């Protein structure tokens, strides 16, 4: 089993909180099991907090302050963590740490696969009132996420796109074609599997919206349901089971990777955009 990836404490406030819990534990020479015993929480809770895969539950920071002999330092930090609009920070933490990512996207090419001009157009369309500097800041963050694709040991990705995402023109013919070319090139990498769910599939298991399933080397998998400006962690057993079943159903109904690459290639020659009113 590969070693767990190190958490970047600068990635988010949640990551910093988790890194502090771990740093203080290791300074005492304690294992996670020992800390869990001292805190009165489960081992899985301690591990998930340390890796920022969940927020510290109520009472956890205060008890940790007592155990570590700190004057409400962790409790104050936890308040900052909870006050942040951090749903996407949590998503990014999961994305960075996952060894496998299963993703369903209905309308657009996922951010991990977007080229710069495509992403910029999407960001502008979704937030037309945002000033250019805000758009560019968000664009830079999106492009930075793609660094995980170029790691020495990149995650395994299984991505299912609806045909609507493949055939949705964005910005211009040239930009759309370049985006499809990028998608096709990524689909040929050994660690990336891309499938397209055709219109002919009709109603389907992903019709409620996009979601992602993250698998890890040392922790149970979790899911994330995504919508426009928010997201929701899927970690309850029954709900996660449904997400997994839905993904498996989409995968079974989608075209094969080879046929999907063929559809993407064909779409590159049939892009039509009418900007006239």
Automatic annotation (TrEMBL):
CDD domains named in the record: HTH_XRE (cd00093)
PROSITE patterns: HTH_CROC1 (PS50943)
Signal peptide location: none
Residues annotated as domain HTH cro/C1-type: 21-56
GO molecular function, one term: DNA binding
Protein name: Helix-turn-helix domain-containing protein
